Amino acid sequence: MNPTRAEIDFSKLAFNLESIRKHIRISTRKKVMVCGVVKANAYGHGLEPVSQKLVSFGVDYLGVANYDEAIKLRKLIPEAPILVFGTLIHSKLQPEKYVSILQKNNLIATVASLDTAKFLDYYNKDKDSRFKVHIKIDTGMRRIGFDVKGALKNVMQILSLKNIFVEGIFTHFAASESGNKKFAYQQLALFQELLHELKKNGAEFPIVHCANSGGVLDIPDAYFDMVRPGLILYGYYPSSEIKNKIELKPVMNFKSKVTFIKKVKPHTGISYGRKYFTKEDTFIGSIPIGYGDGYWRLLTNKSKVCINKKLYRTVGAITMDWTMIELGKVRKVKVGDDVLLMGSENGINLGADKLAKLVGAIPYEMICSVADRVNRVYLNE
Questions:
Q1: pLDDT the model gives residue 116
Q2: Of residues 45, 373, 88, the one with CA closest to residue 16
C-alpha cells in the first residue's frame, strides 16, 4: 500500500468554522449565514466527505464551482442548499432535459447574463416550481457578472421573469486579501449603491452576500446576510497581509514514509540533472512522493520535511514519484519512519503558506495540487 496520504482532521475543520463564526458574532450582532466553499475538491481535501461534515456542523449553504460538482454532491446531500458559482452552459442539445436535471437536483444557479436568465426561464416554464438563482454583479473583479454601472435595468428585467426565483444577489472582492482595502471598499460602495437603487425600485432579496475569506476577516460591512469562507475554513490566511485575525489550524497534513535509505560518498550527484552534490559521506533517504502527487518540482533543493520532530532538507530534483532528503553522516532515521511534507504537527509548521512562499505561489495552489491518486485519510470523524 502506498504510504503517501493526506490526513484530513475534521476536528480542525470544526475549530476553523467556529473561529469564523465567533469572529462574525463579535463583529456584528445580526445573524449571518455561512456558505462553506467546497469547490475544487474542497480545496484538495475531498469534496464529498468535507461537504457532509460541514453540513453536520451546521453550515447554511455549500458553494461549488460548476454543475458537475453540484450534482455529485446532491447524490450524497439531499437537503442542503448548493449554490453553483460558475456560469451555465446554454446547451443546444436537449436544453429542456438539461434544465430539468438541474431543477431535479434542486441546484441554485448563478445568473451572470440576461441570456442565462432567459434560458432558465424559458426551459423551466412547464415545471412545478421556479428555478432558484442568485444574480452575480461585477463590481471590479472583471470576471463574470453584470457590470454594476448598468446592472439596475438588467436586474429589474430578471425579476420580471415568471419562471425563476431570484433568491439572492452577490458580488466578489478582487483584493480583500490586501492590507490596503481601498479598492475593496470601492467595490463595496458600488454594490451598496446598487442595492439602494434596487430597493427604491421595490426590489429586495432574501440573501445578499459579498464577503469571501478576506472579507470575512477584515470587512464586517460586507457580511450582509451570508459570508463565503473558503481558504480560511481549511486553516490558511489568504495573504500574509491579513494574518492572525483569527486562530486557524491547517486541516490537512500531507505525509508519507521513508522507504529507502542509502549511504553515498562526497561529490555524489543526486536525482535527475544532478542539481545537488553531496559535500561529505551522508545518508540519502527516499520518500515515495513527488510532483505526480502534488509535491511541486519547484521545491527542489528548497523545502524541508519533518521526521521524528526534526527537519531534513530535500535534495536533488523532486521527481514524479520520489523525493530525496539528506539525513547526514549519522543515521537517525529508519525505513518506515513517518514524514510530514506539508502541514503542522508536534509544533513543526510546514504549512502550505510556507511552501508557497518558497516557490512564489499561494497556499490555494499548494493544497489544491494534492493529486487524486493520494489517499485521503479522515481523522476525528
A1: 95
A2: 45
Segments of the chain scoring below 50 in pLDDT:
none
C-alpha cell read off for 347: 509544533
Give the largest Cα separation in the chain, rounded.
79
pTM over 0.85: yes
Separation of first and last alpha carbons in the chain:
23
Q: What is the CA radius of gyration of the chain?
A: 24
Residues contacting residue 153 through CB under 8 Å, at least 6 positions apart? none
Active site residue 272: yes
Q: Which domain holds residue 356?
A: 252-379
pLDDT of residue 96: 87
Per the CB < 8 A criterion, the answer to whether 212 and 173 are in contact is yes
* Residue 245 counted as domain residue: no
Q: 17 with 151, same domain?
A: yes
Whose cell is 465567533? That residue is 22
- Alpha-carbon gap, residue 233 to 54, rounded angstroms: 10
Q: How much is the pLDDT for 1?
A: 82
Domain co-membership, 85 together with 184: yes
Catalytic position from the list 104, 272, 279, 310: 272
Please tell me the predicted confidence (pLDDT) of residue 323: 98
Predicted pLDDT at 208: 98
Active site residue 127: no
pLDDT at residue 244, rounded to an integer: 83
Contact 63, 35 (CB under 8 A): yes
Q: Which pLDDT score is estimated for 126?
A: 87
Task: Measure Cα distances from 306 to 30, 217, 326, 356 in Å.
Answer: 44, 31, 12, 17
- Interacting residues of 308 by C-beta distance below 8 A, sequence separation 6+: 332, 333, 337
Q: What is the pLDDT of residue 164?
A: 96
Mark which of 175, 207, 236 sits at the end of a domain.
236
